[in-house]
Amino acid sequence: MSSLGTAQGNGRYALLVLPAANRVYTQASWELACAELRVFGHAVLGDRLREIERREIGGVPYVGFSAAELTPRDAAFLANLSSAHALFRVHGRLLEPVELRPLDRFDDDLVTIQRYPGKTNERFTRLLLNVTILASSFGADLLDRRLRVLDPLCGRGTTLNQALMYGFDAAGIDLDGRDFDAYVQFIRQWLQHKRIKHRAEVTTVRRDRHAVGRRLQVTLTVDGIEIDFVNADTGRGLEFFRPRSFDVLVADLPYGVQHGSRAAAGLSRGPFELVTQALPVWMELLRPGGAVGLAWNTHVATRDALTGALADAGLEVADAEPYRGFRHRVDQAIVRDIVVARRP
Ligand SMILES: C[S@@+](CC[C@H](N)C(=O)[O-])C[C@H]1O[C@@H](n2cnc3c(N)ncnc32)[C@H](O)[C@@H]1O
Questions:
Q1: Please, which residues have CB within 8 angstroms of residue 318's CB and are 6 or more apart in sequence?
Q2: How many whole angstroms from 183 Cα to the centroid of ligand 1?
Q3: CA dist., res. 251 & res. 120, Å (int)
Q4: Mutational test site, ligand 1, from 174, 187, 249, max ligand atoms within 8 Å of CB
Q5: Helices (H) and strands (E) in the chain, counts
Q6: What is this structure's pTM?
Q7: How far apart are CA 124 and CA 66, in angstroms?
Q8: Tens of pLDDT, residues 234-277
């Protein structure tokens, strides 16, 4: 174990990783936590974090790093790390807590209650959202601005709920009517149960008298935060949302493996084919400087294939070192990775 002493001019810090993150990623949790920390360091902390690595203190593993004194704003960014449990400044053998106040506006059951086959883990969803925002031109706005987030393959809304946690406007598209119904039921019940005043309506959207999709629109009364979920093919996104209206797009692509009841018609296209067809629409929905972040199963498409498709659509892939550290094993059939790209 390397020394935890204070290097000259630098403080040493130790980040305690959420036990839940260890359960989700098992061995990979350290690498993912280090990679996410590197992206935060690069994007919003002026590359001031050094020596980011797994360390043990008193037999407990931490992510250690060194940095010139962290300001309260630095700590406010790091509070939102998807695996952050607690942060300490290390003084010799003593740990001094650094106050962490994540953006979280609601109880975390908003992201944890729903359980279903095919759900994207909520911690991983937070990681993907963070890394995508940080790769966009709006990373520095994470703490200050109500961003607009779209998940164009939103399933039962894990990304929508995570965006809501941050106080952002959340939009989603999914073709599976059962996912749409389940989300409508969940969010209505949850808002009622928490006594959060809101308006909610489900409508059928028509063009030339033909139904093109169902739509859930929710507005929270206090601050006007919006949830907007459309049940339609993602390739039709521009029929529902204005061009250049989203700061980030975040999606967990179909894994190319069956999740129990998920064999509905139209969902059978391969993930790579789906992305290449939808990318021109997704790109148009992003505002300049916005970023798209995709998670996918590397068994069904290579990183080069995805980065190539993103570049062909006119996006700038963030492929520098900190963005290449997210590949991890989920189970026997899935080795997942993340790719992010910015609209110039
Ligand atoms: C990996 S799942 C996303 C799960 C989601 N993040 C969640 O936690 O619920 C991929 C989603 O893509 C949706 N999908 C597949 N093809 C689609 C298409 N052409 N248009 C819209 N949604 C599609 C599926 O219905 C599925 O919900």
A1: 135, 291, 340, 341, 342
A2: 13
A3: 10
A4: 174
A5: 9, 15
A6: 0.94
A7: 25
A8: 999 999 999 999 999 999 999 886 554 344 444 446 888 999 99
